[in-house]
Specification:
It is a single chain. The protein is mostly helical and 547 residues long. The chain has two domains: 3-47 and 124-529, Up-down Bundle (Growth Hormone, Chain: A); 51-105, no CATH class. It is 63% helix and 2% strand. The protein contains 22 helices and four strands. The strands form two sheets. Strands 1-4 form a two-stranded antiparallel sheet. Strand 2 (88-90) and strand 3 form a beta hairpin. Helix 6 packs parallel to helix 8 (178-192) and helix 7 runs antiparallel to helix 8. It is elongated, with a radius of gyration of 25 Å. The N and C termini lie close together (9 Å). Mean pLDDT is 82; it is low at 524-547. It is found in: Membrane.
Length: 547
């Protein structure tokens, strides 16, 4: 038997999706839900409601003058949108002066870090910095944890990330000062998406081709469900301490995974740990009620022949993504796609509280609007392919952002177009995880997805800072998001299609994968059934070279 196909014969016996894969997949996707909660928790925990200058001698802790009273309108000017100015008030001589303290509209929020520490006006940067620091923690986590996934295993990183999510998530609630809060949120961010990265790679390495699209998109569905939970818990719990504790406790559902979840058989095989890999497959076959028989001695022998090659590839780590021309091109473009998708996705999501209306309902809609996008993705992806869908949805998302600029600020039409933009960007974002996992070879797959996730985290960290540019002009942030989406949408034309294609295993396979395949040579994808029948009938063929 060809040594490169020994693993594929074993994995092929499982089939694409059985009882075992379904159970493991359920365990994996729980990490997506917790990641969504952690990522967007600050939107409610540190919410900044409408505010105005506190009037000395009138407003106090026990009493706030009605906002529409004649006294308030005499002392506080109106802004360009006809609302009370948030940062200025009239001095005794009728000149404008900066606020010294503030009072907040308590219709939706009575307790938040934003109210407690006054994340407004000249202190507004503090709220943006809190989210930016979290995202930079995610950046570091993407680099370190992606590499640790390849070195120490997907399961180990998954479970330890869950433990530390719980620890640091709860610690955030106990923070007594701003800088303590920021430091703990940085640590919280490192592990906030660690289980997501490991869980996604585990799924892609276990599930067969016919179910990879559905499973990949389901990860994004669960992330969106996490956003919905952020809105739901925020509506029910109007206390920033208990709210943060509840958000953190969701990570506890990942702890039993140490006993319930298995390591990736592909990773074990790549490490030369054939007996452990075969044992998991035998367990899976039994759970799937399959009559297939595994030839353990032959498989172990074949694994020993390939372990040296895998070890050499494994040692290249993230650098292996940049050492050859085709790998370099694909890596740079896909990282650009991650960057643009993330900055637009989080730019829209994190600013949900600034849209007119009930902020909890707006956040809820931000999660719900993703669902129909994912349904469309699942229906069309095998018909038009990853490349075409990512390109079209990013281009339409970018156009939506630019359309918002032309609409009246705070109008229902603007809110509606923002939701349309979120619809398209969510769709492209859902594809990029799976697309990246299929572009990168197995030996650096976690590192590749981790690198892409790092780029997404960097741009996600920039999203709150970009929103601060509205002090120059309210339209500037949206224009930036729109042009980034358009640029990335066009660049995706140069990537190869992966639908129904064999996944590369080694760095050499990765360099050969997709050469000459661009939108200009084949602008649309093809149905799986139309892909070349030369692909071996195995679960996910990784190398079609002949021995």
């Amino acid at each position: 038997m060809d040594k490169e196909h020994a693993l594929e014969e074993m994995m092929g016996k499982l089939g694409d999706f059985g009882r075992y894969q379904g159970f493991q997949f359920f365990l994996h996707i729980l990490a997506a839900m917790t990641a969504g909660i952690h990522m967007l928790s600050l939107v409610t925990v540190a919410a900044v409601p409408d505010h105005r200058c506190a009037i000395k001698g009138v407003d106090s802790q026990n009493y706030t003058e009605p906002w529409n009273s004649s006294l308030v309108t005499q002392l506080i000017p109106l802004n360009d949108h006809g609302k009370l100015e948030s940062c200025k008030m009239y001095a005794v001589n009728k000149s404008l002066e900066d606020c010294q303290s503030w009072v907040y509209d308590t219709q939706y929020y009575t307790s938040s870090r934003g109210i407690e520490w006054d994340f407004v006006c000249h202190r507004r940067w503090m709220g943006a910095a809190s989210q930016t620091v979290y995202m930079f923690g995610v950046v570091l986590g993407s680099i370190v944890l992606g590499r640790l996934c390849d070195s120490f295993g997907r399961k180990t990183v998954f479970v330890w990330s869950g433990i530390l999510q719980l620890l640091f998530g709860a610690s955030v609630a106990f923070s007594t000062g701003y800088y303590m809060f920021v430091v703990i949120r940085f640590l919280y961010g490192i592990f906030g998406s660690g289980s997501y990265i490991a869980g996604f790679v585990l799924t892609m390495e276990l599930i067969g081709p016919s179910r990879r699209t559905l499973c990949g998109v389901t990860f994004q569905v669960m992330f969106a469900f996490g956003i919905i939970l952020v809105a739901g818990w925020g509506y029910l719990i109007d206390n920033r301490f208990y709210l943060q504790i509840v958000y953190a406790l969701h990570a506890a559902i990942l702890l039993p995974h140490w006993f319930l979840m298995d390591e990736s058989p592909r990773w074990l095989w790549a490490q030369g740990r054939a007996r452990e890999s075969v044992a998991i497959i035998e367990k899976a076959l039994k759970m799937n009620r399959s009559n297939e028989v595994i030839d353990t001695p032959a498989l172990v022998s074949n694994c020993k022949l390939t372990s040296t090659k895998y070890t050499e590839d494994q040692s290249s780590g993230t650098l292996g993504l940049f050492r050859t021309p085709n790998m370099l091109k694909k890596t740079l473009i896909i990282c650009g796609c991650w960057f643009a998708n993330s900055v637009v996705y989080y730019g829209l999501s994190l600013n949900a509280g600034k849209l007119n209306g009930n902020p909890y309902f707006i956040i809820f809609l931000m999660g719900v609007v993703e669902m129909p996008s994912y349904i469309i993705i699942m229906y069309y992806i095998d018909r038009v392919g990853h490349r075409a869908l990512i390109s079209v949805m990013m281009l339409l998302g970018g156009i939506s952002c630019l359309v918002v600029v032309a609409l009246p600020h705070g109008s229902p039409a603007a809110t509606g177009v923002v939701m349309i933009g979120k619809f398209f960007i969510s769709g492209s974002y859902s594809i990029i995880y799976k697309y990246s996992a299929e572009l990168f070879p197995t030996v650096v797959r976690s590192s590749g997805v981790g690198l892409g996730s790092m780029c997404a985290s960097v741009s996600g960290a920039l999203a709150p800072l970009i929103s601060l540019l509205d002090t120059l002009n309210p339209k500037v942030p949206t224009i930036i998001l729109g042009f980034l989406a358009l640029l990335s949408g066009f660049s995706t034309f140069l990537l190869p299609e992966t639908i129904g294609r064999s996944l590369p295993q080694s760095i050499e396979d990765g360099e050969k994968f997709g050469i000459g395949d661009t939108c200009f040579t084949n602008c649309s994808g093809r149905r799986m059934s139309e892909i070349s029948t030369d692909i071996p009938e195995t679960m996910i063929p990784l190398d079609v070279k002949k021995s």
